[in-house]
Specification:
The chain has one domain: Uncharacterized conserved protein DUF2267 (Globin-like, Orthogonal Bundle). The protein contains eight helices and no strands.
Length: 125
């Protein structure tokens, strides 16, 4: 999936303008990079469009432990959007990531997250 298709898909899924969805997608991936190990973030980045790969370069190798509410708060802050847009946008972005990468890769990402994160991934297609 190329960058334009990724952004358009996430925007449509979230019901947001593409410019807003683009900010949220970068914010979501940067926050995900904080939450998963550096190695897993690099594996995920390798399967995403080049313009999204830098967002998955974590500041440290170890995953930072925080819940869904903090995840959404960080996305809102980084994306300069409200909490509702951040949540719906993060769901749209993560669902689009799931479609853009191999099932095994997405399962590896999910294996590093607590069960409560399943609400951000949306239902399986």
């Amino acid at each position: 999936m190329d960058y334009a298709t990724f952004t358009r898909t996430a925007a449509e899924r979230a019901g947001l303008p593409e410019a807003t969805a683009e900010r949220i997608e970068h914010a979501t991936l940067r926050t995900l990079a904080d939450r998963i190990s550096g190695g897993e973030a690099q594996d995920l980045a390798a399967q995403l469009p080049a313009r999204l790969q830098d967002d998955l370069r974590p500041p440290r190798e170890e995953a930072e432990a925080f819940g869904v509410d903090e995840f959404v708060r960080r996305v809102a802050e980084r994306g300069d959007v409200g909490p509702e847009e951040a949540r719906s946008g993060a769901v749209a972005v993560l669902t689009t990531v799931r479609e853009a990468v191999t099932p095994g890769e997405f399962d590896d990402v999910l294996s590093q997250l607590p069960q409560e994160y399943r609400e951000l991934v949306g239902p399986m297609a």
